[in-house]
Amino acid sequence: MSYLTRDFFERDVLTVARDLIGVELVWKGCAGIIVETEAYSVEGDLAAHTATRPSAREFVKSHPPGAAYVYFNYGMYWLFNLHVKGGSQDGLILIRALEPTRGIQQMQQRRHREKLHELCSGPGKLALALGIDGTHHGLPMAGKGRPAGCGLIQPTSAPYEVVTDIRVGISQAIDYPWRFLSRHSPHLSVKHGKVKLPAKAGTR
User: Fold this and answer.
1) Which domain, by its residues, includes 173?
2) Which of 52, 74, 110, 119 is a good FRET partner for 132, with 20 to 30 A between their CA atoms?
């Protein structure tokens, strides 16, 4: 069992977002294989928090690569992201879906759901299933300071078939193909090619 180190996150945000597919996210007795991610770039991405939130820009400056960026979305759900810095393109990566592997009973209790594909098939769902909230904002997920029982484990199985798609639920930079997913996973938040565009869609 080999945990990812900081150098994994010191690369281009798009490369890291793709390479996270198949990695196991371990969180305090629970775990799941990452099957869907979204990349958000610090530069040239109007959909990124760094485009509109000074706090996000400060986070990128002050936190190490691999840190957790956790925020409350629409006053309803905590969303879990990973910080990428030091490569050709810094950014944040939203973890959108997991295939549950450990701590499943605890996830079922938190989610009030029994079926595996309903536990972590969305960013809000997976945060609730794992017990992630705002107190974990800034937590190192790689390298120095990573707490015991949390981290990201390098996959040992065969690579997943990764495809790209547009991102979900945004109104800016909607045509960027920066969502990465395991094509045939039943645990995805939105299947490949099924993202609904906003009524008035602009282009780059």
Assistant:
1) 6-182
2) 52
